[in-house]
Amino acid sequence: MLKNFNLIVSTIRGKEEDCISELWYFLKELNDEDINISRTGLPGLIVARTTLDPIKVVRSLREKALSNPWYFIFILKIIPIHATTDTEIQNIKKLALELAEKFLSENDTYRITIRKRLTDLRSEEIIGEIAPFIKNKVNLEKPDKIIWIEIVGRVTGISVIEPCDVVSLEIIRRNKRVNL
User: Which of 23, 69, 93, 134 could join 173 via S-S bond, C-beta 3.0 to 4.6 A?
Assistant: First the structure.
């Protein structure tokens, strides 16, 4: 599995190769010259490294999906990742706090969201190591920013993003149907 990913993508189980092709084609459309995409070994989950800004990639994908909800067939959800580290609590804490300092403004509210796969670490333990060191107010319902932690076995990806930077194609399609 690619260890220094900056995109994490979920797809339909068994359709990982189709998702890889779809993502590769989209990144080429955005003029990415050096794309690296790999399976994680988990069904329905792939990771990628783009030379482009991952936030801009996800926002471009959102715009494309909003204008044409069925343009993407195999990409179900995509999340930008700022940096990766080994899955050890102190490494996760250090990186999360560095990114929070860099991307949280003084008045931003935040929440921590953790997605874990192939680890014994507990979410409460991770949050307990990070939250006491962040001075910003917590808002679990409508935060300004999310400290997003993706644990995939021995590798953890972390980002500090706006809620709109978590793109679910299923939600976009559902909202499009409702508004028709």
Answer: 69
The closest alpha carbon to 3, from 156, 139, 106, belongs to: 156
The model scores a pTM over 0.90: yes
For the cut 70, the answer to whether the pLDDT of residue 31 exceeds it is yes
Q: Which helix (H) or strand (E) holds 96?
A: helix 89-103
Which string of b and e fits 118-157 if b means at least 16 CB within 10 Å? Answer: eeebeeeebbebbbeebebeeeeeebbbbbbbbbbeebbb
Q: What is the DSSP string of 97-152?
A: HHHHHHH--TT--EEEEEEEES----HHHHHHHHGGG--SPB-SSS-SEEEEEEEE
Q: What band does 179 get if pLDDT is binned at 50, 70 and 90? A: low
Q: How many other CB atoms are found less than 10 A from the CB of residue 108?
A: 17
User: Which architecture does CATH list for 7-82+163-175?
Assistant: 2-Layer Sandwich (3.30)
Question: What CATH class has 85-161?
Answer: alpha beta
Task: Quickly list DSSP for 27-78.
Answer: HHHTT-SS-EEEE-SSTTEEEEE-SS-HHHHHHHHHHHHHH-TTS-SS--EE
Tell me the C-alpha distance between 121 and 12, whole Å: 26
